[in-house]
Amino acid sequence: MSENIETLRPGQIRDAAAPARRGWGGRPIRQAGADFLAGAALPVAVIALWQLAGDANLIDPFFLPTPLAILEAFRDLIASGELAHHLGVSVRRAAVGFLFGGGLGLILGLIAGFNRNAEYVLDPSMQMLRMIPHLAIAPLVILWFGFGETSKIILIAKGAFFPLYINTLMGIRGVDEKLVQVSRILGFDRRKRLTRLMIPAAMPCILLGLRLSLALSWLGLVVAELLGSTNGIGFLINAAKQNGTTEIIFAGIVIFAIVGKLLDSFVRLLERRLLHWRDSYHG
């Protein structure tokens, strides 16, 4: 074995020691491709069976249009420019609501996490507000702010607030006290302790809160737009319901699903980038 190593040229040694090519997620490209194919197998099989059942007239196309009919509705929406317009409005609403709600949740979570007295003041009220459902508070929000953009952004922000608040608070409180004691022994000042220990240790929980917050922002958008809107994907679904165009309803549902999956994949990629030091994110 040692003789074989000695006979290798430097370039060969470097090539042998080089890690496998890795994709955006920090994993080998071949493995990432295999995972994608495995995840796509079930949806493709369901869509194929769905189309076959529709072609065989086993399902009523009014209640369950075929995938090809939904694809044709997509094409018409893209050609008319409606899809780009309504999707742009919905994404902008969700982004603004998330920035307000998620940003406030992160800030208050950090304050309550680093200060026990602030936690005693803030947390009981936050937990009580968290238990109020969207549909219960929506009529009151509309009564106060009308059917305009403000009420929609408030509903989206409410959904985005609590995941980041709770997970940020739990992440900071979950930092091992022994690590804090070690940092004091090493002479870390308060700023260095926060930036080098507390925040990195709490980052897995904070990123989980970000993932949930983005998801609930997108779900809150559905509630906001279905309750009353003149544009957006929710409005598109509502109008299709009134006109009896079921394939457009399914097209809107698919759009919500695709954008939600893209947001979730973005946060998972962010987790792999920021948490590369964790064993669970290797390989």
Automatic annotation (TrEMBL):
Q: Where in the cell is it found?
A: Cell membrane
Q: Where are the transmembrane segments?
A: 32-53, 94-115, 127-147, 153-176, 197-221, 248-270
- Which family does the similarity line name? Belongs to the binding-protein-dependent transport system permease family.
- What region holds the ABC transmembrane type-1 domain? 87-267
Q: What is this protein called?
A: ABC-type nitrate/sulfonate/bicarbonate transport system, permease component
Q: What is its main location?
A: membrane
Keywords, in A-Z order? Cell membrane, Membrane, Transmembrane, Transmembrane helix, Transport
- Native organism: Thermobacillus composti (strain DSM 18247 / JCM 13945 / KWC4)
Give the matching CDD domains: TM_PBP2
> Which GO BP terms, alphabetically?
alkanesulfonate transmembrane transport
Listed GO cellular component terms? plasma membrane
- Tell me any Pfam family this protein matches: BPD_transp_1
Read off the lineage from the record.
Bacteria, Bacillati, Bacillota, Bacilli, Bacillales
The record's annotation in PANTHER family points to: ALIPHATIC SULFONATES TRANSPORT PERMEASE PROTEIN SSUC-RELATED, ALKANE SULFONATE ABC TRANSPORTER-RELATED, MEMBRANE SUBUNIT
Transport found in the keyword field: yes
* Cited Gene3D superfamilies: MetI-like
How does the record say this protein sits in the membrane? Multi-pass membrane protein
